[in-house]
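#lab-general

N.A. 3:47 PM
ok so I finally got the sequence cleaned up, no stray characters, all 172 residues accounted for. can someone with queue access submit it? mine expired

B.Y. 3:52 PM
send it over

N.A. 3:53 PM
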Amino acid sequence: VVGLFAGIGGIELGLHEHGHSTRLLCEIEPSAARVLAHHFPTVSLVPDVREILALPESDLLVAGFPCQDLSQAGRTAGITGKRSGLVGEVFRLLETAEPRWLLLENVPFMLSLDKGEAMRFLTRELERLGFNWCYRVVNSRAFGLPQRRHRVLMLASRTEDPRQILLPDDAG
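B.Y. 4:20 PM
back already:
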């Protein structure tokens, strides 16, 4: 697993607890980086995604890219905003990397902001790079957490149908 914009590593930690190993983490926020260093002491930690020249070999790239420009509570600058626009770094790195899976995570307001421009951008880039994709809005309460927090999970693969994983009851 490679985790970009990893925050405190919630997704990566869950994957680790289910047998996956993390090869690289990236997080610019110092307090979140300290949490990552505590939970993943042997994993390389890069502060700025723009400093990564190439990704290590991995099966899964996870990127919970910045939501500030896509959030209803944020600046709503959109997918090209200064913070949320950093998702372009994910696509830059995917030009030369070949992870089997890609998982993007963000806020559901991006589905409607600017009439869905963020989703059009993401899907155009994924298709340009040869990915099949699907997405689903999930509520953190469905996983036993004591808070209601909706998130868009977008799963993509160049070789497989991600609907079988993310939408098992709806696939096909």
